[in-house]
Amino acid sequence: MTTQKQHWENVFATKQETEVSWFQEYPKTSVEFLELFNIPLTANIIDVGGGDSHFVDALISKGFSNIYVLDISANAIEKAKLRLGEKAKNVHWIVSDILDFVPPVTFDFWHDRAAFHFQTNPKNIDKYVSIATNAIAKNGYLILGTFSENGPKKCSGLDIIQYTETSMSAKFEIDFKRIKCITENHTTPFNTIQNFLFCSFEKI
Of 10, 131, 136, 16, nearest to 74 (Cα)? Predict the structure, then answer.
């Protein structure tokens, strides 16, 4: 049986960035959430499941100095490093399953577009919530993007869990207050539409 890590290493070894459904040339929604909270440039920011996403490019271009990118796939991280060239030295790269992650710092901004919804086991979902809760500073922000109830039921051949504003909020209601949720259609490189839910929370 292929493990999660083997699956993702293979995806990033065999496909170009424009050959995967989640590709975005510019992560407009993620950047809009970042700007909404007026995050200081010295803030600790992590992109969970960031892979070879272009969110890190946007963070660097805006002048953020404490950027962390975590992904289960070393191949994904290497692709991002190659794309960024010299700028890659300004980023803390972490190859890890999020469920094994021991945060080296507390984070002011935790961003996850389309990684959380791959946690389908209730125990693993709880573990993710626990890791994120402990890793985010008081008054820090959590931004989660998942497939909505109108989105796909699978991604990259793997099952996912669809979320609604209510069901996502319920996972984080003990330690966070919800700030803003939106749904949006993401157009894939194959011209198909995926409906996403994005929610932002503040640690209390």
Answer: 10
* CA–CA separation, 189 and 22 (whole Å): 8
pLDDT per position as a tens digit, 18-42: 766 666 778 899 999 999 999 999 9
| Among 119, 101, 118, residue whose Cα is nearest residue 110 | 101
Domain presence at residue 147: yes
The number of angstroms, rounded, from the C-alpha of 64 to the middle of its chain's C-alpha atoms is: 17
Tokens 């980023």 belong to: 91
Q: Give whole-number Cα distances, 145 to 3, 47, 102, 142, in Å.
A: 23, 12, 22, 10
pTM higher than 0.85, yes or no?
Answer: yes
Asked if 112 and 154 touch (Cβ cutoff 8 Å), the reply is: no
Domain count, the chain: 1
Exposed, middle or buried by CB within 10 Å (0-12, 13-18, 19+), for 3?
exposed
Q: CA neighbours within 13 Å on the CB side: how many for 7? A: 11
- What is the amino acid identity at position 30? S
Sequence-separated (6 or more) residues with CB below 8 Å from residue 142: 110, 112, 132, 136, 172, 176, 200, 201, 202, 203
Other beta carbons within 10 Å of 150: 14
- Amino acid symbol at 32: E
Q: Which domain holds residue 108?
A: 4-8+27-203
